[in-house]
Structure formats: structure tokens, C-alpha cells
């Protein structure tokens, strides 16, 4: 990692430690090897381990183990934060009847989108899963340990394009890989109705789909293989939105996708 990036990361960690408490040590002051927000297995049950923070807002990040570079945090936004985000979208006209069901914005992001970007960066840093080595992006083994490579996490701006998609019940999005005009490292924030997003390898001969449940308030991070070598789709036609054998109840779903446009030479 570049020296400036290390400094920026250390500075952000120090600020967060001051505000939220030290998440890397337990009550007797000994360093703990448990990362904040991870699910810890003990003899009898699974226990959610969260750091002792005054606001209690560290998040649980899970790798989708079948797909390198695909992670989800299902508790990024609280109920109140989801409502505030929807109000901001409403205020900016994204949700109005007259507007199309997809709206894009390039360049300077509105304040709420900047806040979302900072929240994602902060959450990745606090997860303890951020990579400290630029080599990891090329490594086969990095998905288990690397939530988002530091060269993506610390680029400025983290994102400079947003798209808001509004899906009525039954509506979805066809299988696709995001356009190459966008750089690596994409975030998708889900609001309102839950849905199942399916991932299919672009290389596989058999059409094996990996389902991922996107709940309201969740964020998905896609980078590397997940971004370039897997297609993602949401099929909300009857019969396709099954999770654990149950068809999901569909309401309107809104998503915010944050990406970074490649620079043209
Ligand atoms: O709505 C979503 O969750 C996904 C949107 C998406 O894949 C896209 O806009 O490229
Ligand atoms: Fe996409």
C-alpha cells in the first residue's frame, strides 16, 4: 500500500477509535483476534461479536464464498438511515411517478451519496478485512481476507457516478456485467423490498446460478472476479424470487449503485 494510503487509513482508524472506542481490544485490554462485527462460533451457539462502541454501529461483512470479490453487509443502514436515504431520493426527484425507473448522475455526487461513500469506506476499515497489500488484488486466495483492496478503497473520489433503479413488483434487471467504462469496485445499496440477485459465471459452460439475498439496508461490494467475471441479474417474475424455499413477498424495490467512471485519456 502507498505510504499516503497507510497514513490516511491510520488517521481514519484513530479518529474512529476516538469516536467509537477501540474495537481491537477486549475488556481486559488484551488484543483480541476477533474482528469487529464477525460471527464467532463457540461451543454451544453462534454469538455475534461486536466491539464496545458507544453508537454500536460496526457492521457484519460476509464473503459470498463461491465468488471471489463479492461481499455483503446486511446491516449497513439502520431503519432510520434507510428512511432518511429514501427521503433524500424523494427530495431529489428520483422517486417521482414522472421520473423514469432509472436515473443516473455523473460527476459531483449529491451530499447523501458522498455520505454513503464515506460510510462504506469507514465500515470496510472498521471491519478489519481491508487489504494492506496491493498484491492481493491478483491473488486467488484474497477473497476470504480481503473485503475491498486498499487501492480501490483509498482512491479519490471513491465513486463518481450513481444510478438509482426503481423496480415495481415483477420488474428486475437482465443478467449483465457492468460496462467496462466503469472502473473496478462497485457498491449496490438496497432499499425497500428484499430480492434475490443471481450471479452466473461468464466462463462456466453450465448455467449454475449463485443466489444472494439483498435485504433493505444492505450493501454489496463487487470487485475483481465478481465485477468482471460474473454476471448479475434480478428476475422478479413469479417463481424466480425464492429464498429458502419461500417465494419472497414483492413490493417496490429501490437500489443505489455507486461506481467510478474510467478516465478517458
Ligand atoms: O438494482 C440492483 O440491485 C442492481 C443494479 C445493477 O446491476 C446496475 O445498475 O448495473
Ligand atoms: Fe449491474
Automatic annotation (TrEMBL):
Gene3D superfamilies: Alpha-ketoglutarate-dependent dioxygenase AlkB-like. Residues 18-44 are annotated as: Disordered. Residues 30-44 have a biased composition (Basic and acidic residues). One of its GO terms (biological process) is fatty acid metabolic process. Residues 158-262 form the Fe2OG dioxygenase domain. Belongs to the alkB family. SUPFAM superfamilies: Clavaminate synthase-like (SSF51197). GO terms for cellular component: mitochondrial matrix. Its EC number is 2.1.1.229. It comes from the Eukaryota. Keywords: Methyltransferase, Transferase. GO terms for molecular function: tRNA (5-carboxymethyluridine(34)-5-O)-methyltransferase activity. It comes from Handroanthus impetiginosus. This is tRNA (Carboxymethyluridine(34)-5-O)-methyltransferase.
Amino acid at each position: 500500500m502507498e505510504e499516503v494510503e497507510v497514513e490516511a487509513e491510520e488517521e481514519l482508524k484513530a479518529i474512529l477509535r476516538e469516536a467509537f472506542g477501540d474495537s481491537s481490544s477486549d475488556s481486559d485490554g488484551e488484543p483480541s483476534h476477533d474482528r469487529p462485527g464477525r460471527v464467532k462460533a463457540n461451543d454451544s451457539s453462534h454469538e455475534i461479536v461486536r466491539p464496545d462502541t458507544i453508537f454500536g454501529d460496526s457492521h457484519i461483512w460476509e464473503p459470498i464464498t463461491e465468488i471471489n470479490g463479492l461481499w455483503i453487509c446486511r446491516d449497513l443502514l439502520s431503519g432510520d438511515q434507510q428512511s432518511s436515504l429514501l427521503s433524500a431520493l424523494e427530495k431529489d426527484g428520483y422517486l417521482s411517478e414522472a421520473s423514469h425507473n432509472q436515473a443516473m448522475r455523473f460527476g459531483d455526487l449529491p451530499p447523501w451519496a458522498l455520505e454513503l461513500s464515506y460510510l462504506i469506506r469507514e465500515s470496510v476499515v472498521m471491519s478489519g478485512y481491508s487489504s494492506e497489500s496491493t498484491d492481493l488484488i491478483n491473488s486467488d486466495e484474497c477473497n476470504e481476507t480481503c473485503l475491498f483492496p486498499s487501492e480501490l478503497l483509498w482512491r479519490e473520489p471513491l465513486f463518481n457516478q450513481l444510478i438509482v433503479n426503481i423496480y415495481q413488483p415483477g420488474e428486475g434487471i437482465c443478467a449483465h456485467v457492468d460496462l467496462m467504462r466503469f472502473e473496478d469496485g462497485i457498491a449496490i445499496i438496497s432499499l425497500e423490498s428484499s430480492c434475490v440477485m443471481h450471479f452466473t459465471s461468464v466462463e462456466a459452460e453450465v448455467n449454475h446460478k449463485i443466489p444472494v439475498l439483498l435485504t433493505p439496508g444492505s450493501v454489496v461490494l463487487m470487485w475483481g472476479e465478481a465485477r468482471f467475471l460474473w454476471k448479475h441479474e434480478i428476475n422478479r417474475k413469479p417463481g424466480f424470487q425464492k429464498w429458502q424455499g419461500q417465494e419472497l413477498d414483492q413490493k417496490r424495490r429501490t437500489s443505489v449503485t455507486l461506481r467510478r467512471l474510467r478516465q478517458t485519456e
